[in-house]
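Think of the structure tokens as a kind of shorthand, similar to the way a musician reads notation: each symbol stands for something richer, in this case the local conformation of the backbone. In the example below we present two proteins back to back. Begin with the first one, reading the sequence and then the tokens, and try to describe in your own words what changes along the chain.
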Amino acid sequence: SRFTKQKSHAPSVKVAPNWTSESNSNAVYHPSAQSLADAVYLQGVVVTNNTVAFPKSNSPRIIHVIGENENNIRGCIDEAADMMGMRSLHVGGLAAFLVHYNSIYNRDDTRSLFTGGLSDKLKGLAAALEVANQCSPCIVHVEGLDHELTPTTGHMADASGREEEERRILQVLCDKTTSSRCFTSNSHIGHDLFLTSCTAPKVVIVFSTSDSLPPGPISSSLQQTSISIDPPDTNYARALWDYDVDGTFELLSASLIGLSARDISYLRQGFVHEWTKRS
């Protein structure tokens, strides 16, 4: 996946082909994509001692990832969706999504003044979930959740206000993500643990933040631990370097490893430009 420097707030839906890791054995994925795909796979089931327990059908299926956009969170989620045969929808600002949604579907909500506040953000979340349900199975990625809600630290902190905001977000998720799809498998997922059947939600929500979630309703609703979005490893850095088509990666790898995905892609563009200009 190539990383662009500019961040778009427009609705972005990626139609993922029904690929599997077996059919793409030569593909190079984001180093955190497999962990995220595993988390999506296990969203519909809890397994203990060969006993399969299914969460309540109206429980929102939420995954939390920690990382910076510069390490290509969007690309990581797209690749995890590819692995699971799902689509992905990125929401870079809930209120902004509502504006785009209304313009695309010619919906003019004149009942209230648009302020970009919590009410508009909740409407934006509901709109994103509506789109996701229409093109399910789908992963909805809400970027920068920590920027959408009231902070819990600093001079603007409001713990009770933040808790109420999180409760209202979870209520929207419960109202809009109640259906699931069933499938059967025969997968060995651990020591003496086998998954023979599973109910997978049609929509999985991924919240991304730059840091850990504070204690609250959303963190309490997570079924799994948060997933860290790692910087590029050697294989992924080589892929960002146009798969080393010109044989320069090994020469420069010592300087590239440790940089973000954004920086590697940006340097590659500049390198190719200079290389072409001098040749």
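Once you have a description of the first chain, move to the second and do the same.
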Amino acid sequence: DIITFEAYFGACPYGRFRDPNLAPTEANLELLLSILRGKDKQALQLNQCNYFQFSGPKAALWDPVFNARLAYEGFFTITSGRGASNEPLPELQPFYGVLTWDNFAASKHVRQTLSRLRRGGREYRLVVSSSLGSWELLEKYQKDKHGTNWLTKQYFEMMQKAAADPSVNFQVHCIDLFAAEGERRPLAGEIGFSIGRVYTSLSGWTGERTAEALGTVQLALLGRWLQQRGYVFWSLGHCYSPEMEYKRQLGHRIYPRADFLELLHKHRGTFRRATGACFAGLADGDVGASAALLLGAEGEAGAGPG
């Protein structure tokens, strides 16, 4: 299940849509989505875009609830610009990388990693937080490796504020891998978010390359944890190869935009919610020990989303 970089972006030849009158409000977002669902000429043209940029004051563009609503509707938001002019760039992707548990369990790469962990004797733990310290590790890794980090501090703090609102169906997660024997510095990690029973990875980091392949260990254990905690599927975001080959190795399948949105709508729940009336997924302070996560992993058959 492979799509190239050229095919991915070639599916949306118009690229970025920006209307100076399109303010970042939930009402305007609903209007945009209703047009995209249409069948007329305007809808056909808009559906050949993947970036949909709103216009307005910085405070409105970075509004936490509005950006959480974008995520709820299936947008994968990065950032555009530099320094003080940096602003969100929401993308309604032409294709999404989707990992269901049947495909995760069937992946040869995953099975080999889990088998190696079971034989190796070294234990790990995954820890969930929403701390700035985890973001700082990601920032250093991305800038050292790529010279830039689209998941800026402003972006991360915006997600923290959205997650702190109990009326909004949005949670941010920093998921770090530690050695179980008590080391205080994480070995690898990532930042993502959950909407209902759907977890989405945003960006990750790892330490120096070693024979243990710690980045792969973190991903394999995280997949097990998400499955055990009741998530229906794992959205891996961008899916083109060879740049995103590691996602294919995990067992992802490529979903066109309409198919992904249909699946997301089935499992996301409502955006506005009463306190406590929601799926209890990963939360700050949760710890997943590798010994527990590996139970039943050998040759286990997973289940796909209903």
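Compare your description with these statements about the second chain. The chain has a mean pLDDT of 91.
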